[in-house]
Backbone:
Protein backbone atom coordinates (compact mmCIF):
# COMPACT_ATOMS: atom_id res chain seq x y z
CA UNK A 1 0.00 0.00 0.00
CA UNK A 2 1.15 3.44 -0.79
CA UNK A 3 1.60 6.04 1.89
CA UNK A 4 -1.45 7.80 0.68
CA UNK A 5 -3.77 4.82 0.86
CA UNK A 6 -2.54 4.10 4.40
CA UNK A 7 -3.41 7.63 5.33
CA UNK A 8 -6.83 7.28 3.71
CA UNK A 9 -7.40 4.04 5.58
CA UNK A 10 -6.46 5.66 8.88
CA UNK A 11 -8.76 8.54 8.16
CA UNK A 12 -11.65 6.24 7.34
CA UNK A 13 -11.17 3.97 10.33
CA UNK A 14 -11.00 6.95 12.69
CA UNK A 15 -14.18 8.26 11.17
CA UNK A 16 -16.01 4.98 11.69
CA UNK A 17 -14.70 4.73 15.25
CA UNK A 18 -16.25 8.08 16.10
CA UNK A 19 -19.39 7.11 14.24
CA UNK A 20 -19.71 3.96 16.35
CA UNK A 21 -19.21 6.00 19.49
CA UNK A 22 -21.91 8.40 18.45
CA UNK A 23 -24.38 5.80 17.29
CA UNK A 24 -24.01 3.71 20.47
CA UNK A 25 -25.74 6.34 22.58
CA UNK A 26 -28.68 6.45 20.22
CA UNK A 27 -28.83 2.66 20.03
CA UNK A 28 -28.84 2.31 23.81
CA UNK A 29 -31.62 4.87 24.07
CA UNK A 30 -33.59 3.06 21.38
CA UNK A 31 -33.09 -0.31 23.07
CA UNK A 32 -34.28 0.99 26.42
CA UNK A 33 -37.25 2.57 24.73
CA UNK A 34 -38.24 -0.62 22.91
CA UNK A 35 -37.67 -2.85 25.93
CA UNK A 36 -39.59 -0.57 28.29
CA UNK A 37 -42.58 -0.14 26.03
CA UNK A 38 -42.70 -3.80 24.95
CA UNK A 39 -42.85 -4.89 28.59
CA UNK A 40 -45.35 -2.15 29.40
CA UNK A 41 -47.59 -3.29 26.52
CA UNK A 42 -47.66 -6.79 28.04
CA UNK A 43 -49.30 -5.26 31.08
CA UNK A 44 -52.18 -3.86 29.09
CA UNK A 45 -52.93 -7.27 27.61
CA UNK A 46 -54.36 -8.24 30.98
CA UNK A 47 -55.11 -4.90 32.67
CA UNK A 48 -57.41 -2.15 31.44
CA UNK A 49 -55.63 0.99 30.24
CA UNK A 50 -58.41 3.17 31.61
CA UNK A 51 -58.31 1.52 35.00
CA UNK A 52 -54.55 1.99 35.07
CA UNK A 53 -54.76 5.71 34.41
CA UNK A 54 -57.84 6.42 36.53
CA UNK A 55 -57.38 3.95 39.36
CA UNK A 56 -56.89 5.56 42.75
CA UNK A 57 -55.40 2.52 44.39
CA UNK A 58 -52.02 0.87 44.00
CA UNK A 59 -52.37 -2.48 45.79
CA UNK A 60 -50.22 -5.23 44.29
CA UNK A 61 -50.80 -7.59 47.21
CA UNK A 62 -54.61 -7.36 47.24
CA UNK A 63 -56.94 -9.65 45.43
CA UNK A 64 -57.83 -8.69 42.89
CA UNK A 65 -54.62 -6.73 42.49
CA UNK A 66 -55.10 -3.02 41.82
CA UNK A 67 -52.68 -1.05 39.71
CA UNK A 68 -53.99 2.53 39.61
CA UNK A 69 -51.18 4.98 38.82
CA UNK A 70 -52.87 8.06 40.29
CA UNK A 71 -51.51 7.83 43.85
CA UNK A 72 -47.98 7.38 42.52
CA UNK A 73 -48.40 10.12 39.96
CA UNK A 74 -49.78 12.38 42.67
CA UNK A 75 -46.78 11.56 44.83
CA UNK A 76 -44.31 12.38 42.06
CA UNK A 77 -46.12 15.56 41.05
CA UNK A 78 -46.51 16.87 44.61
CA UNK A 79 -42.91 16.21 45.58
CA UNK A 80 -41.65 17.73 42.32
CA UNK A 81 -43.95 20.74 42.54
CA UNK A 82 -42.81 21.38 46.10
CA UNK A 83 -39.19 21.10 45.02
CA UNK A 84 -39.76 23.60 42.21
CA UNK A 85 -41.56 26.05 44.51
CA UNK A 86 -38.56 25.95 46.84
CA UNK A 87 -35.76 25.73 44.28
CA UNK A 88 -36.88 28.21 41.60
CA UNK A 89 -36.81 31.43 43.64
CA UNK A 90 -33.59 30.47 45.43
CA UNK A 91 -32.01 29.27 42.20
CA UNK A 92 -32.88 32.35 40.15
CA UNK A 93 -31.83 34.74 42.90
CA UNK A 94 -28.51 32.92 43.26
CA UNK A 95 -27.98 32.94 39.51
CA UNK A 96 -28.65 36.69 39.35
CA UNK A 97 -26.38 37.23 42.30
CA UNK A 98 -23.52 35.24 40.77
CA UNK A 99 -23.92 36.70 37.29
CA UNK A 100 -24.65 40.31 38.12
CA UNK A 101 -23.93 41.33 41.66
CA UNK A 102 -21.13 39.22 43.06
CA UNK A 103 -17.56 40.41 42.59
CA UNK A 104 -15.23 38.16 40.63
CA UNK A 105 -13.83 36.64 43.84
CA UNK A 106 -17.20 35.81 45.37
CA UNK A 107 -18.41 34.41 42.06
CA UNK A 108 -15.20 32.40 41.86
CA UNK A 109 -16.09 30.71 45.13
CA UNK A 110 -19.83 30.37 44.53
CA UNK A 111 -19.73 28.81 41.09
CA UNK A 112 -17.54 25.81 42.02
CA UNK A 113 -19.54 25.44 45.25
CA UNK A 114 -22.73 25.09 43.24
CA UNK A 115 -21.08 22.51 41.01
CA UNK A 116 -19.90 20.66 44.09
CA UNK A 117 -23.47 20.54 45.34
CA UNK A 118 -24.40 18.77 42.11
CA UNK A 119 -21.76 16.16 42.87
CA UNK A 120 -23.22 14.99 46.18
CA UNK A 121 -24.57 11.44 45.71
CA UNK A 122 -28.32 11.33 46.13
CA UNK A 123 -28.12 8.60 48.74
CA UNK A 124 -26.01 10.90 50.90
CA UNK A 125 -28.62 13.63 50.57
CA UNK A 126 -31.29 11.05 51.40
CA UNK A 127 -29.38 10.04 54.48
CA UNK A 128 -29.00 13.67 55.49
CA UNK A 129 -32.74 14.11 54.99
CA UNK A 130 -33.60 11.07 57.03
CA UNK A 131 -31.34 11.90 59.95
CA UNK A 132 -31.61 15.70 60.06
CA UNK A 133 -34.73 16.85 58.20
CA UNK A 134 -37.23 14.16 59.09
CA UNK A 135 -37.06 14.64 62.89
CA UNK A 136 -37.22 18.42 62.53
CA UNK A 137 -40.21 18.36 60.21
CA UNK A 138 -41.91 15.94 62.56
CA UNK A 139 -41.46 18.23 65.56
CA UNK A 140 -42.11 21.53 63.73
CA UNK A 141 -45.42 20.41 62.25
CA UNK A 142 -46.25 18.06 65.11
CA UNK A 143 -46.70 15.00 62.91
CA UNK A 144 -46.63 11.31 63.63
CA UNK A 145 -43.85 10.98 61.07
CA UNK A 146 -41.54 13.47 59.46
CA UNK A 147 -41.37 11.39 56.31
CA UNK A 148 -43.53 13.63 54.16
CA UNK A 149 -43.81 15.05 50.66
CA UNK A 150 -42.36 18.28 52.06
CA UNK A 151 -39.22 16.50 53.22
CA UNK A 152 -38.84 14.97 49.77
CA UNK A 153 -39.40 18.37 48.18
CA UNK A 154 -36.67 19.98 50.25
CA UNK A 155 -34.16 17.26 49.37
CA UNK A 156 -35.15 17.41 45.71
CA UNK A 157 -34.89 21.19 45.75
CA UNK A 158 -31.32 20.85 46.93
CA UNK A 159 -30.69 18.45 44.08
CA UNK A 160 -32.36 20.62 41.45
CA UNK A 161 -30.63 23.83 42.58
CA UNK A 162 -27.26 23.28 40.85
CA UNK A 163 -28.99 22.70 37.50
CA UNK A 164 -31.24 25.72 37.90
CA UNK A 165 -28.43 27.97 39.10
CA UNK A 166 -25.82 27.06 36.53
CA UNK A 167 -28.13 27.05 33.50
CA UNK A 168 -29.80 30.34 34.55
CA UNK A 169 -26.46 31.89 35.34
CA UNK A 170 -25.25 31.02 31.84
CA UNK A 171 -28.36 32.58 30.35
CA UNK A 172 -28.03 35.75 32.43
CA UNK A 173 -24.32 36.13 31.73
CA UNK A 174 -24.95 35.80 28.00
CA UNK A 175 -27.22 38.85 27.92
CA UNK A 176 -25.24 41.27 25.72
CA UNK A 177 -23.59 44.02 27.72
CA UNK A 178 -24.93 46.46 25.10
CA UNK A 179 -28.41 45.91 26.53
CA UNK A 180 -27.24 46.57 30.06
CA UNK A 181 -25.43 49.70 28.95
CA UNK A 182 -28.49 50.84 27.04
CA UNK A 183 -30.52 50.52 30.19
CA UNK A 184 -27.96 52.28 32.38
CA UNK A 185 -27.61 55.05 29.79
CA UNK A 186 -31.31 55.83 30.23
CA UNK A 187 -30.71 56.42 33.91
CA UNK A 188 -32.00 53.17 35.33
CA UNK A 189 -30.32 51.70 38.38
CA UNK A 190 -28.87 48.22 38.61
CA UNK A 191 -31.98 46.71 40.14
CA UNK A 192 -34.26 48.13 37.42
CA UNK A 193 -31.84 46.90 34.78
CA UNK A 194 -31.84 43.39 36.23
CA UNK A 195 -35.58 43.28 36.71
CA UNK A 196 -36.69 44.92 33.49
CA UNK A 197 -33.98 44.11 30.96
CA UNK A 198 -31.64 41.32 32.02
CA UNK A 199 -34.19 38.85 33.35
CA UNK A 200 -36.67 39.35 30.47
CA UNK A 201 -33.80 39.01 27.98
CA UNK A 202 -32.70 35.73 29.51
CA UNK A 203 -36.15 34.43 30.35
CA UNK A 204 -36.06 31.54 27.89
CA UNK A 205 -32.73 30.35 29.30
CA UNK A 206 -34.12 30.65 32.80
CA UNK A 207 -37.24 28.69 31.79
CA UNK A 208 -35.04 26.00 30.32
CA UNK A 209 -33.13 25.91 33.61
CA UNK A 210 -36.33 25.46 35.58
CA UNK A 211 -37.58 22.72 33.31
CA UNK A 212 -34.26 20.87 33.42
CA UNK A 213 -34.49 21.18 37.20
CA UNK A 214 -37.95 19.62 37.08
CA UNK A 215 -36.55 16.84 34.92
CA UNK A 216 -33.86 16.18 37.46
CA UNK A 217 -36.36 16.17 40.32
CA UNK A 218 -39.04 14.02 38.73
CA UNK A 219 -36.65 11.19 37.89
CA UNK A 220 -34.88 11.16 41.24
CA UNK A 221 -35.35 7.95 43.25
CA UNK A 222 -33.05 7.21 46.11
CA UNK A 223 -33.18 10.35 48.19
CA UNK A 224 -36.92 10.67 47.76
CA UNK A 225 -37.54 7.08 48.71
CA UNK A 226 -35.61 7.56 51.93
CA UNK A 227 -37.58 10.56 53.19
CA UNK A 228 -41.14 10.50 51.86
CA UNK A 229 -42.59 7.57 53.79
CA UNK A 230 -43.71 5.68 50.67
CA UNK A 231 -47.44 5.47 51.37
CA UNK A 232 -49.22 4.83 48.09
CA UNK A 233 -52.24 7.02 48.82
CA UNK A 234 -53.50 10.18 47.21
CA UNK A 235 -52.82 12.93 49.78
CA UNK A 236 -55.80 14.79 51.18
CA UNK A 237 -55.88 18.29 52.56
CA UNK A 238 -52.56 17.85 54.34
CA UNK A 239 -50.93 17.72 50.87
CA UNK A 240 -47.27 18.40 51.54
CA UNK A 241 -47.37 17.04 55.06
CA UNK A 242 -48.65 13.60 54.12
CA UNK A 243 -46.60 10.58 53.30
CA UNK A 244 -46.39 9.95 49.57
CA UNK A 245 -44.88 7.44 47.25
CA UNK A 246 -43.42 8.47 43.94
CA UNK A 247 -43.30 6.46 40.72
CA UNK A 248 -39.56 6.05 41.01
CA UNK A 249 -39.72 4.88 44.61
CA UNK A 250 -42.41 2.36 43.70
CA UNK A 251 -40.28 0.79 41.02
CA UNK A 252 -37.21 0.70 43.24
CA UNK A 253 -39.10 -0.75 46.19
CA UNK A 254 -41.10 -3.40 44.38
CA UNK A 255 -38.86 -4.52 41.54
CA UNK A 256 -36.72 -6.63 43.85
CA UNK A 257 -39.60 -8.68 45.19
CA UNK A 258 -41.76 -9.13 42.16
CA UNK A 259 -41.86 -12.42 40.29
CA UNK A 260 -40.77 -12.10 36.70
CA UNK A 261 -43.56 -12.25 34.14
CA UNK A 262 -46.42 -11.52 36.53
CA UNK A 263 -48.94 -8.77 36.04
CA UNK A 264 -47.28 -6.82 38.87
CA UNK A 265 -43.94 -7.10 37.08
CA UNK A 266 -45.39 -5.67 33.88
CA UNK A 267 -47.25 -3.00 35.86
CA UNK A 268 -43.92 -1.68 37.11
CA UNK A 269 -42.78 -1.37 33.50
CA UNK A 270 -45.98 0.49 32.67
CA UNK A 271 -45.39 3.10 35.36
CA UNK A 272 -41.76 3.23 34.25
CA UNK A 273 -42.92 3.99 30.72
CA UNK A 274 -45.15 6.80 32.03
CA UNK A 275 -42.18 8.27 33.89
CA UNK A 276 -40.04 7.94 30.78
CA UNK A 277 -42.58 9.84 28.69
CA UNK A 278 -42.78 12.53 31.35
CA UNK A 279 -39.02 13.09 31.56
CA UNK A 280 -38.62 12.96 27.78
CA UNK A 281 -41.42 15.51 27.47
CA UNK A 282 -39.82 17.79 30.04
CA UNK A 283 -36.45 17.56 28.32
CA UNK A 284 -37.94 18.22 24.90
CA UNK A 285 -39.66 21.33 26.21
CA UNK A 286 -36.38 22.49 27.73
CA UNK A 287 -34.57 21.88 24.45
CA UNK A 288 -37.24 23.72 22.46
CA UNK A 289 -37.01 26.73 24.77
CA UNK A 290 -33.24 26.69 24.61
CA UNK A 291 -33.31 26.58 20.83
CA UNK A 292 -35.76 29.46 20.72
CA UNK A 293 -33.44 31.36 23.02
CA UNK A 294 -30.51 30.77 20.70
CA UNK A 295 -32.53 31.94 17.71
CA UNK A 296 -33.49 35.13 19.52
CA UNK A 297 -29.90 35.80 20.47
CA UNK B 1 -15.15 82.23 13.50
CA UNK B 2 -12.73 80.54 15.81
CA UNK B 3 -14.84 81.47 18.73
CA UNK B 4 -15.03 78.04 20.33
CA UNK B 5 -11.35 77.77 20.33
CA UNK B 6 -10.83 80.98 22.11
CA UNK B 7 -13.68 80.24 24.44
CA UNK B 8 -12.10 77.02 25.48
CA UNK B 9 -8.84 78.60 26.20
CA UNK B 10 -10.55 81.37 28.04
CA UNK B 11 -12.83 79.18 30.04
CA UNK B 12 -10.18 77.23 31.81
CA UNK B 13 -7.98 80.20 32.13
CA UNK B 14 -10.91 82.01 33.59
CA UNK B 15 -11.87 79.41 36.13
CA UNK B 16 -8.43 78.35 37.18
CA UNK B 17 -6.20 81.31 37.00
CA UNK B 18 -8.34 84.35 36.76
CA UNK B 19 -6.41 87.17 35.19
CA UNK B 20 -3.16 85.35 34.58
CA UNK B 21 -1.50 85.30 31.26
CA UNK B 22 -1.51 82.19 29.20
CA UNK B 23 2.14 81.47 29.62
CA UNK B 24 1.85 81.30 33.34
CA UNK B 25 -1.24 79.19 32.88
CA UNK B 26 0.86 76.59 31.30
CA UNK B 27 3.28 76.62 34.15
CA UNK B 28 0.49 76.20 36.60
CA UNK B 29 -0.89 73.33 34.68
CA UNK B 30 2.42 71.63 34.59
CA UNK B 31 3.13 71.93 38.26
CA UNK B 32 -0.37 70.99 39.30
CA UNK B 33 -1.05 68.11 37.08
CA UNK B 34 2.32 66.75 36.05
CA UNK B 35 1.46 66.89 32.42
CA UNK B 36 3.65 65.08 30.05
CA UNK B 37 5.61 66.57 27.24
CA UNK B 38 2.91 66.02 24.65
CA UNK B 39 0.45 67.92 26.70
CA UNK B 40 2.72 70.86 26.78
CA UNK B 41 2.76 70.94 23.02
CA UNK B 42 -0.94 70.78 23.00
CA UNK B 43 -1.22 73.78 25.22
CA UNK B 44 1.30 75.69 23.24
CA UNK B 45 -0.80 75.09 20.21
CA UNK B 46 -3.86 76.29 21.92
CA UNK B 47 -2.12 79.35 23.14
CA UNK B 48 -0.81 80.14 19.71
CA UNK B 49 -4.19 79.68 18.32
CA UNK B 50 -5.61 81.92 20.94
CA UNK B 51 -3.10 84.64 20.19
CA UNK B 52 -3.82 84.47 16.52
CA UNK B 53 -7.43 85.05 17.16
CA UNK B 54 -7.00 87.71 19.72
CA UNK B 55 -8.45 90.23 17.32
CA UNK B 56 -11.74 88.42 17.19
CA UNK B 57 -14.65 89.82 19.10
CA UNK B 58 -14.63 88.56 22.64
CA UNK B 59 -16.89 85.56 23.16
CA UNK B 60 -19.83 86.04 25.41
CA UNK B 61 -18.64 83.55 28.00
CA UNK B 62 -17.87 86.18 30.56
CA UNK B 63 -21.45 87.28 30.85
CA UNK B 64 -23.53 84.44 29.51
CA UNK B 65 -21.30 81.46 30.21
CA UNK B 66 -24.10 79.47 31.78
CA UNK B 67 -26.20 79.76 28.70
CA UNK B 68 -23.48 79.35 26.15
CA UNK B 69 -21.52 76.41 27.51
CA UNK B 70 -23.58 73.53 28.69
CA UNK B 71 -20.56 71.33 29.40
CA UNK B 72 -17.20 72.47 30.74
CA UNK B 73 -14.44 69.92 31.06
CA UNK B 74 -11.43 70.86 33.15
CA UNK B 75 -8.13 69.01 33.29
CA UNK B 76 -9.65 65.62 32.80
CA UNK B 77 -7.32 62.65 33.12
CA UNK B 78 -8.45 59.07 32.80
CA UNK B 79 -6.59 55.83 33.36
CA UNK B 80 -7.54 52.28 32.56
CA UNK B 81 -5.29 50.55 35.04
CA UNK B 82 -1.88 51.96 34.15
CA UNK B 83 -2.93 53.08 30.71
CA UNK B 84 -3.24 56.84 30.65
CA UNK B 85 -6.13 56.99 28.18
CA UNK B 86 -7.10 60.65 28.43
CA UNK B 87 -4.50 63.28 29.09
CA UNK B 88 -5.46 66.57 30.61
CA UNK B 89 -8.48 67.32 28.47
CA UNK B 90 -10.15 70.70 28.80
CA UNK B 91 -12.96 71.71 26.51
CA UNK B 92 -16.24 73.58 26.48
CA UNK B 93 -19.32 72.33 24.69
CA UNK B 94 -21.79 74.97 23.51
CA UNK B 95 -25.49 74.48 23.87
CA UNK B 96 -27.74 73.44 20.98
CA UNK B 97 -24.88 72.70 18.64
CA UNK B 98 -23.49 69.52 17.14
CA UNK B 99 -20.01 68.87 18.44
CA UNK B 100 -18.01 66.15 16.68
CA UNK B 101 -15.11 64.23 18.19
CA UNK B 102 -12.82 62.82 15.56
CA UNK B 103 -9.57 60.89 15.64
CA UNK B 104 -8.12 57.49 14.84
CA UNK B 105 -9.19 54.33 16.68
CA UNK B 106 -8.01 54.18 20.25
CA UNK B 107 -7.43 57.93 20.48
CA UNK B 108 -9.77 58.21 23.45
CA UNK B 109 -12.67 60.00 21.79
CA UNK B 110 -15.25 57.38 22.79
CA UNK B 111 -13.75 57.12 26.26
CA UNK B 112 -14.03 60.87 26.60
CA UNK B 113 -17.64 60.79 25.41
CA UNK B 114 -18.42 58.22 28.06
CA UNK B 115 -17.01 60.35 30.83
CA UNK B 116 -19.87 62.78 30.24
CA UNK B 117 -22.60 60.41 31.35
CA UNK B 118 -20.25 58.46 33.59
CA UNK B 119 -20.59 55.23 31.66
CA UNK B 120 -16.94 54.62 32.51
CA UNK B 121 -18.04 54.08 36.11
CA UNK B 122 -18.93 50.57 35.07
CA UNK B 123 -15.35 49.73 34.16
CA UNK B 124 -13.72 48.56 37.34
CA UNK B 125 -10.13 49.65 36.71
CA UNK B 126 -11.05 53.05 35.35
CA UNK B 127 -9.81 56.05 37.32
CA UNK B 128 -10.71 59.64 36.58
CA UNK B 129 -9.24 62.91 37.76
CA UNK B 130 -10.47 66.36 36.86
CA UNK B 131 -13.85 67.93 36.60
CA UNK B 132 -16.76 67.98 34.21
CA UNK B 133 -19.38 70.64 34.76
CA UNK B 134 -22.78 70.22 33.23
CA UNK B 135 -25.00 73.23 33.89
CA UNK B 136 -22.30 74.42 36.29
CA UNK B 137 -22.57 71.28 38.36
CA UNK B 138 -19.61 68.95 38.75
CA UNK B 139 -20.85 65.56 37.66
CA UNK B 140 -17.95 63.84 39.43
CA UNK B 141 -18.86 65.41 42.75
CA UNK B 142 -19.83 62.96 45.47
CA UNK B 143 -23.40 64.18 45.70
CA UNK B 144 -24.12 63.66 41.99
CA UNK B 145 -26.90 61.18 41.32
CA UNK B 146 -25.52 59.16 38.41
CA UNK B 147 -28.95 57.92 37.33
CA UNK B 148 -30.24 61.46 37.23
CA UNK B 149 -27.16 62.51 35.28
CA UNK B 150 -27.76 59.78 32.70
CA UNK B 151 -31.33 60.92 32.40
CA UNK B 152 -30.07 64.39 31.50
CA UNK B 153 -27.26 63.14 29.29
CA UNK B 154 -28.65 60.53 26.93
CA UNK B 155 -26.54 58.18 24.88
CA UNK B 156 -26.93 56.40 21.56
CA UNK B 157 -24.51 53.56 20.97
CA UNK B 158 -22.43 52.35 18.08
CA UNK B 159 -24.59 49.33 17.48
CA UNK B 160 -28.35 49.69 17.90
CA UNK B 161 -29.23 48.00 21.17
CA UNK B 162 -33.01 47.87 21.44
CA UNK B 163 -34.33 45.88 24.38
CA UNK B 164 -35.95 42.52 23.61
CA UNK B 165 -39.45 43.91 23.93
CA UNK B 166 -41.99 45.69 21.75
CA UNK B 167 -41.27 48.95 19.94
CA UNK B 168 -43.67 50.72 22.29
CA UNK B 169 -42.13 49.23 25.43
CA UNK B 170 -38.65 50.18 24.27
CA UNK B 171 -39.61 53.84 24.11
CA UNK B 172 -41.75 53.64 27.25
CA UNK B 173 -38.91 52.02 29.20
CA UNK B 174 -37.20 55.25 30.24
CA UNK B 175 -40.31 57.16 31.34
CA UNK B 176 -41.52 54.08 33.23
CA UNK B 177 -38.34 53.62 35.23
CA UNK B 178 -38.35 57.30 36.07
CA UNK B 179 -41.87 57.02 37.41
CA UNK B 180 -43.73 59.06 34.80
CA UNK B 181 -47.48 58.62 35.31
CA UNK B 182 -49.08 55.97 33.12
CA UNK B 183 -51.42 58.42 31.44
CA UNK B 184 -48.58 60.47 30.01
CA UNK B 185 -46.64 57.55 28.55
CA UNK B 186 -48.54 57.03 25.24
CA UNK B 187 -48.07 60.72 24.46
CA UNK B 188 -44.36 60.58 25.27
CA UNK B 189 -43.91 57.47 23.12
CA UNK B 190 -45.59 59.09 20.13
CA UNK B 191 -43.73 62.36 20.57
CA UNK B 192 -40.39 60.57 20.93
CA UNK B 193 -40.95 58.36 17.89
CA UNK B 194 -41.93 61.45 15.91
CA UNK B 195 -38.82 63.20 17.20
CA UNK B 196 -36.72 60.32 15.95
CA UNK B 197 -38.50 60.36 12.56
CA UNK B 198 -39.74 56.84 13.09
CA UNK B 199 -43.40 57.36 13.92
CA UNK B 200 -44.77 57.03 10.39
CA UNK B 201 -42.94 53.76 9.85
CA UNK B 202 -43.99 52.08 13.10
CA UNK B 203 -47.26 53.65 14.19
CA UNK B 204 -49.29 50.62 13.09
CA UNK B 205 -46.95 48.06 14.61
CA UNK B 206 -46.03 49.44 18.00
CA UNK B 207 -46.64 46.07 19.60
CA UNK B 208 -44.18 44.29 17.29
CA UNK B 209 -40.81 43.24 18.60
CA UNK B 210 -38.12 45.86 18.23
CA UNK B 211 -36.02 43.21 16.48
CA UNK B 212 -38.47 43.21 13.57
CA UNK B 213 -37.09 46.61 12.55
CA UNK B 214 -34.19 47.16 10.16
CA UNK B 215 -30.79 48.23 11.50
CA UNK B 216 -31.36 51.88 10.71
CA UNK B 217 -34.85 51.81 12.21
CA UNK B 218 -33.48 50.13 15.32
CA UNK B 219 -30.94 52.92 15.69
CA UNK B 220 -33.69 55.53 15.34
CA UNK B 221 -35.69 53.57 17.90
CA UNK B 222 -32.72 53.87 20.24
CA UNK B 223 -32.72 57.62 19.59
CA UNK B 224 -36.47 57.74 20.32
CA UNK B 225 -35.83 55.80 23.52
CA UNK B 226 -33.26 58.38 24.51
CA UNK B 227 -35.57 61.29 23.65
CA UNK B 228 -38.31 59.77 25.80
CA UNK B 229 -36.46 60.56 29.01
CA UNK B 230 -36.15 64.19 27.87
CA UNK B 231 -32.41 64.71 28.09
CA UNK B 232 -30.63 68.03 27.56
CA UNK B 233 -27.60 66.49 25.93
CA UNK B 234 -27.37 63.46 23.65
CA UNK B 235 -24.12 61.61 23.17
CA UNK B 236 -23.77 59.67 19.93
CA UNK B 237 -21.04 57.06 19.90
CA UNK B 238 -20.40 56.34 16.22
CA UNK B 239 -24.12 55.89 15.64
CA UNK B 240 -23.82 55.15 11.92
CA UNK B 241 -20.84 52.84 11.83
CA UNK B 242 -23.04 49.76 11.40
CA UNK B 243 -25.48 51.34 8.97
CA UNK B 244 -25.85 51.57 5.21
CA UNK B 245 -25.53 54.99 3.50
CA UNK B 246 -29.27 55.61 3.27
CA UNK B 247 -29.88 54.86 6.94
CA UNK B 248 -26.82 56.94 7.75
CA UNK B 249 -28.27 59.88 5.89
CA UNK B 250 -31.51 59.60 7.81
CA UNK B 251 -29.67 59.61 11.12
CA UNK B 252 -27.58 62.57 10.03
CA UNK B 253 -30.64 64.55 9.02
CA UNK B 254 -32.18 63.65 12.33
CA UNK B 255 -29.16 64.84 14.28
CA UNK B 256 -29.20 68.16 12.43
CA UNK B 257 -32.86 68.53 13.34
CA UNK B 258 -32.36 67.48 16.96
CA UNK B 259 -29.81 70.18 17.70
CA UNK B 260 -32.59 72.75 17.88
CA UNK B 261 -33.67 71.20 21.15
CA UNK B 262 -30.68 69.25 22.33
CA UNK B 263 -26.97 69.65 22.63
CA UNK B 264 -25.36 66.93 20.59
CA UNK B 265 -21.93 65.38 20.82
CA UNK B 266 -21.05 62.81 18.22
CA UNK B 267 -18.03 60.56 18.03
CA UNK B 268 -17.36 59.56 14.47
CA UNK B 269 -14.76 57.78 12.41
CA UNK B 270 -16.19 59.32 9.34
CA UNK B 271 -14.67 62.73 8.68
CA UNK B 272 -17.13 63.57 5.95
CA UNK B 273 -19.85 62.95 8.47
CA UNK B 274 -18.22 65.29 10.98
CA UNK B 275 -17.85 67.92 8.25
CA UNK B 276 -21.45 67.50 7.12
CA UNK B 277 -23.30 67.66 10.38
CA UNK B 278 -21.18 69.26 13.08
CA UNK B 279 -20.79 72.89 14.08
CA UNK B 280 -17.69 72.25 16.13
CA UNK B 281 -15.03 69.59 15.95
CA UNK B 282 -12.41 68.31 18.34
CA UNK B 283 -9.51 66.20 17.13
CA UNK B 284 -8.12 63.60 19.51
CA UNK B 285 -4.88 61.68 19.21
CA UNK B 286 -3.37 59.22 21.70
CA UNK B 287 -5.57 60.45 24.52
CA UNK B 288 -4.88 64.12 23.89
CA UNK B 289 -7.15 66.81 22.64
CA UNK B 290 -5.00 68.12 19.80
CA UNK B 291 -7.21 70.79 18.40
CA UNK B 292 -10.74 72.06 18.65
CA UNK B 293 -12.74 74.76 16.99
CA UNK B 294 -15.47 75.44 14.50
CA UNK B 295 -15.76 72.57 12.09
CA UNK B 296 -15.08 74.77 9.08
CA UNK B 297 -11.83 75.95 10.59
CA UNK B 298 -10.69 72.52 11.66
CA UNK B 299 -11.31 71.13 8.22
CA UNK B 300 -10.20 74.04 6.10
CA UNK B 301 -7.51 75.62 8.16
CA UNK B 302 -6.22 73.28 10.85
CA UNK B 303 -3.62 74.85 13.12
CA UNK B 304 -1.86 71.68 14.19
CA UNK B 305 0.00 69.64 11.63
CA UNK B 306 -1.26 66.42 13.22
CA UNK B 307 -4.84 67.55 12.66
CA UNK B 308 -4.00 68.43 9.11
CA UNK B 309 -2.31 65.06 8.66
CA UNK B 310 -5.35 63.20 9.90
CA UNK B 311 -7.87 65.24 7.96
CA UNK B 312 -5.98 64.98 4.72
CA UNK B 313 -5.69 61.24 5.23
CA UNK B 314 -1.97 60.97 5.85
CA UNK B 315 -2.69 58.71 8.83
CA UNK B 316 -5.63 57.39 10.81
Residues:
Amino acid sequence: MSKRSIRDFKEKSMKSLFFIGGITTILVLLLIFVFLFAEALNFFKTYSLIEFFTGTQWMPGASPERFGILPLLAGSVIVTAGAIIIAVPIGILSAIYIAELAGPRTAGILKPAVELLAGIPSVVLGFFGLVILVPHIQSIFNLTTGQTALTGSIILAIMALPTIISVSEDAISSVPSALKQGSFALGSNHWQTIYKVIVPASISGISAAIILGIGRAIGETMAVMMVTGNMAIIPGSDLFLSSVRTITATIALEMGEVARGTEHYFALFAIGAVLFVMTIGVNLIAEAIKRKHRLEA
Amino acid sequence: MNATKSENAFSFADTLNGENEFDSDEDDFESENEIEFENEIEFENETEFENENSGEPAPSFSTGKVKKKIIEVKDLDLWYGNNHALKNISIGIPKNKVFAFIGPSGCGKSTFLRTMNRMNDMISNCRIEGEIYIDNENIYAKETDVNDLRKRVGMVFQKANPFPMSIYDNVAYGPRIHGVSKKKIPGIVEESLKGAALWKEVKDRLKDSAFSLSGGQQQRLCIARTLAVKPEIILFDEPCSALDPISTRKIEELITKLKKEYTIIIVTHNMQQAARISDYTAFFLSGELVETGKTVHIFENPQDERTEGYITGRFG
